[in-house]
Amino acid sequence: MELWNAIRSQGFASERFDLYLPFGLKLRLRDVGDGEQPEQGRVVEPSILLYQNDLCRVLVDELEKRHSNSGLVQFYFDQRVQTIDLTKQQLTTSKGETMKFDVVLGCDGVNSVVRKAIDETWPAFETVREPIPGHYKVVRLEFMPPRVDATAVALLLPKAGAVTAFIEPTKQGSCCILFAGNNATDTVLSSSNTTELEQVLSARWPKLQGADLAEVARQLAATPETSTASLVKCNTFAYSHKAVLLGDAAHATGGVSGQGVNSALVDAMLLVDMLNKHYNAENKKLSLRKALLEYSIQQVPEAKALFDLSFGPKPTSAIKRIIIGINTLRDSILKGRFGIGMLPLQTKLTTSLMPFREIRTERDDDYDEHFPSDDYWRQSLTKLDATLD
Predict the structure, then answer these.
(1) Which of 75, 119, 140, 356 is the most buried (most CB within 10 A)?
(2) pLDDT of 41-61, one tens digit each?
(3) How far apart are CA 118 and CA 384, in angstroms?
């Protein structure tokens, strides 16, 4: 709880999500109390909106505070892992240092060096990294736009063009705005003319008027290239007793569902649980391999389920597509009230403690293929691990 409080203090708690239509109408798609109600005596914390660097800083500070005198933790800043040799169990840093390891944890994102090393070493390992259509730029402001609810995440649809503005409130009244669209040549995403940008911003999103649009335009113009997101899929997260993947290095949906950090933190917690349960210093290699395999058996289906939920069903039947559309509209309006329908998917993902695989199974009828059973994942991943023998 101490760690959670430290993280929470750096962010902004909100369960509200507003959609602003081009000509002024606001729809509150999610509000406090809309989510799944927890079991008696169990608390579900609100969503915390914070910057990645603030989260990482808190985690490092807490790690140093708890373990700096133990001799077990050492940080290497201003350098990165350059190459990994899994056969020799050693790595080389960008400063040319060579280090030996027992097991390397790949928490190094979509461009994971650890994932690349596994792919180059193990023929049975399968991984896919693909770009997700779309381009975006992000700006930060000291204050929320005054015409937008400062307590809610907001999606602003434009009066012209196809770029949307996604606003997240952050601590102390500040915010970040993500401008995203499929056309990288759109003025908002490509112009370096601050005067032009300021005029376009005011015209397309009246709700941004009153905000520091000069600063928004300056930041957009100062970022010449747009960013893109990628998806990552792997058929397993563990390589023998030597390497394991977590977070975006193992599975990434490019922020589509907003569950990237949540799923990465669950990966870390699950891995700790498996190490505590299975590790035996007297039989280090075998017990490590068991722990990493069990972690993979638990989290590969979670990643598959989150991928399915993020990108949605793609039924071949036109009738099924119509039914899904009707059910989605029903759930968006009723939100599972009166025993009719279910919570909207995004609300369920955000407010529920239910594993992703259970949410995906709950929606099996929307998909052409049923989600595999736990037995399937255990058998297939155990069989895959055996190819290393």
Answers:
(1) 356
(2) 555 677 889 898 999 999 999
(3) 14
